[in-house]
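User:
Can I borrow your eye for a moment on a structure tokenisation matter? Would you put together a sequence-and-structure record for a protein of your own picking? Please set it down just below, with no commentary around it:
AI:
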Amino acid sequence: MLTQDSPRRRGGLIAALVMAVALVVPAGAVAATDTELTELAELEQVAPTLAELRTIADDLAVANDALAADNTALQLTIDQLARERDELRASLSRFDDLYSPLEADRQLLFELRKDLPETRPEAEARLERIRALALASDPARLGRLVDRIDDTAPAFLDWRFGDWANAQELSAAYIETGANAFESSMDDFRSEVLMSVANRLDGLLTILDRVR
């Protein structure tokens, strides 16, 4: 009879059982089972546990959210760059539109600084050039004023290049012939030219601020 105090007897019984199994089961089958058990043990050692798989899945979800956020930020940046590109194109187009009027402004200001020529043909040519530059610069603002100059110029030129007996007669004719209306028209014209140039320069500075 086996008791708790007889370990030697229990060991002998276990050995006997192992020997009995070895006699009944073929040797090849026992070897195959051992190999499978070994491989299973190795797989169990390297295979992740369920908790580890959940951790990996959580990490992947966090990484995916980060990528989505980065993609959203990148798209916003792309949209912003596209808007800036379109604004730059519009500004450059606007700059091209300003070039010809600005060149007309430059030449017009230069002509207005000159004294009236000494002969009537030269004076008429000067006024015609001023008219052409004004219409190239700002026809909406300057067209009406340059028409007034054309209307008053003949009387002024008649007075300017007329023959007068003395200075007193010359001064009186200045009012009587209407020559003074030309001077008034020219003063108004100069003021509007300066205002037009100032507005155009302001627009140019706005464009430059956008592209800097």
Q: What stands out?
A: Confidence is low (pLDDT under 50) at residues 1-5, 7-25, 27-31.
